[in-house]
Backbone:
């Protein structure tokens, strides 16, 4: 087919929107601050939770080792939950200066890692937190009458059960739905390059 | 090359590449802005393994490709009416509008390749930006131009 239409000439007639360089610097600053606050926010929650748990330890001086293990497990669960916020920023980076093919591959790997992390992190988080609570309660329940002990543990196990069988799958599904969709889209783009 | 010089030299090219990808002036401006924020941040780490232009266009096109993460692209059939050309005849005034519309109907990678070509970037460099062979770039450009020509002719060019 005849391809004599001068597309370059047409392309060069387009108007270009200007942008002041000062506005660009402002945007860069805003982004930097936003990222820093996001990181600080996540870690502040961790710090506050750990302080509260540490405070309980100090204030009530638990006698049983189970109580102490329970507290440590709860803190560890929090740490595990918050690791991704820190890791995704440092380790799972993509290189914007790579060619499109390599970059898309990196994006796909990143999404796969995020999907895997979210699934396992959440499960580990729930297990540790549940175990932590169950162990922590043991000391106090053992000082109660048998009836109240059963009531407290039944309620706790019920709550853990709801978390594990209802909340956990829902959270994982919701979080991964968007990632799955993106992964699929990036795969499509990657296939376009291979064609 | 300092950042301000880069900005002055490349803003127009980067903006037009983004425009070729999204066919929306505000979105193109946002994408171009995002590209330069990345260039500004990463410039101290640029080691000159490729030409500065290649590096900037890689960042531009990668930023375009990644934008689906922020929002779902509007499916072509749902384009708002003002973005579609009403006339069936291509007039001198709406040539560029029509060209952008035709490009927006292409697949994403083809949009990138043709925008780079129209920006007068060497095919060898396009190959380095996209990550395919030079021969492949040549074939793709030929096919895309054929498609565009067909559309222009069908609309009375």
Residues:
């Amino acid at each position: 087919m005849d391809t004599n239409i001068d597309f370059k000439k047409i392309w060069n007639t387009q108007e270009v929107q200007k942008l002041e360089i000062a506005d660009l610097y402002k945007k860069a600053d805003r982004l930097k601050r936003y990222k820093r606050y996001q990181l600080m926010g996540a870690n502040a929650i961790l710090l506050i939770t750990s302080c509260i748990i540490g405070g309980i330890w100090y204030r009530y001086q638990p006698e049983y080792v189970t109580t102490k293990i329970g507290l440590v497990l709860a803190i560890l669960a929090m740490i595990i939950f918050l690791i991704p916020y820190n890791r995704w920023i440092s380790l799972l980076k993509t290189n914007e200066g790579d060619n499109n093919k390599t970059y898309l591959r990196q994006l796909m790997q990143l999404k796969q890692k995020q999907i895997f992390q979210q699934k396992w992190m959440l499960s580990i988080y729930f297990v540790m937190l549940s175990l932590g609570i169950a162990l922590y309660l043991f000391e106090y329940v053992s000082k109660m009458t048998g009836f109240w002990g059963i009531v407290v543990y039944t309620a706790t196990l019920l709550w853990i059960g709801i978390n594990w069988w209802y909340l956990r799958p829902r959270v994982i599904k919701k979080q991964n739905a968007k990632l799955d969709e993106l992964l699929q889209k990036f795969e499509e783009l990657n296939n376009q390059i291979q064609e | 090359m300092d950042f301000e010089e880069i900005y002055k030299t490349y803003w127009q090219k980067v903006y037009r590449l983004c425009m070729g990808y999204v066919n929306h002036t505000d979105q193109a401006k946002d994408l171009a802005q995002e590209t330069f924020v990345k260039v500004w941040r990463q410039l101290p780490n640029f080691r000159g393994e490729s030409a500065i232009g290649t590096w900037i266009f890689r960042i531009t096109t990668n930023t375009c490709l990644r934008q689906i993460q922020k929002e779902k692209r509007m499916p072509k059939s749902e384009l708002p009416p003002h973005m579609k050309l009403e006339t069936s005849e291509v007039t001198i005034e709406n040539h560029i509008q029509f060209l952008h519309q035709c490009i927006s109907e292409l697949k994403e990678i083809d949009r990138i390749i043709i925008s780079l070509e129209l920006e007068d970037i060497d095919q060898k460099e396009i190959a380095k930006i996209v990550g395919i062979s030079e021969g492949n770039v040549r074939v793709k450009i030929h096919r895309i131009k054929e498609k565009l020509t067909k559309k222009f002719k069908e609309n009375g060019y």
User: Anything to note?
Assistant: Residues 73-79 of chain B have pLDDT under 50 and may be disordered. Chain B touches chain A through 55 residues (CB under 8 Å).
